[in-house]
Amino acid sequence: MDVLQLFVSGLANGCVYGLIALGFVLIYKATEQVNFAQGDMMMLGAYITVGLTNAQFMGWPFWIAAPVAIFLMGVFGYLLDMLVLRRMFGQSQIAVVILTIALGFVLRFLAGLIWGHEPVSLESPIVGKDVRFGGLVLGLDELVIILVTLLLTVLLYFYFNRTRLGVAMQASSQNQLAAYYMGIPVKRVNSLIWALAGAVAAIAGILFASKGSIDPSTGLLGIKAFAASVIGGFGSLPGALLGGLIIGLIEPFASRYITPEYARVLPYLLLFLILIFRPHGILAQVHSKKV
Fold this sequence. Notes:
Layout: H1 2-31, H2 38-53, H3 62-83, H4 93-115, E1 130-133, E2 136-139, H5 140-162, H6 164-174, H7 176-181, H8 186-211, H9 221-232, H10 237-257, H11 260-277
Antiparallel strand pairs: 1-2
Helix pairs in contact: 1-5, 1-6, 1-8, 1-9, 1-10, 2-3, 2-4, 2-8, 2-9, 3-8, 5-6, 5-8, 6-8, 9-10, 9-11, 10-11
């Protein structure tokens, strides 16, 4: 039973990593940019939900506050691209990386300034409730995290591969000039994908805050999620989830059966090995550019 509970807990943590990794992949698939502030956007989405729900702040019902927070983070992502990232057009990718790293520092500073640096918890209806299967006791929050992540991954996969807008986003990433000549509004498409990544980050933040407390440093989970996206295959939506699940499962079992110190370093050791032996990731999606 202990092994099963460790397994489910690891799956839940891995799903959160996978959701953050999905944000990395979404932006990269459409714009070939890497957003190192994705984890901090997750943290901001969680804090917005906490601010809207907790009695000492707004006191809204969770089922109203959560969609509002997701919408606000979508707007944040859209405006971030429209007002900031468009001005980086023509710059090298490393310039965008540095910009998003700096944005992460700013978001963590603002979160600490507004909500403080002490851990806070989200008043969610799934917190503290258990589901029993015989002698196995599972947290309802963990099961909800797993189900929501699987559903979202499937929806995004079909969105990118079966809808006109999703295909237009991939065409834009392949060759923006050719996509523009084909009538695709490239700038608007890029802004929409940043909005989608912001909404996904908010969902990840809400689920993470439902499982435990958050503080401004929670945004640094983005580093682990980036490792997950690379392990799974950067550019692959299922790969992002797979990488997150692998890291999520490694941590609890390594903590239990080896040592917590090894548990912290094993995900990055795995990343190191993947980069050596399979540099495109487990579910690699390597395409030649069409010009």
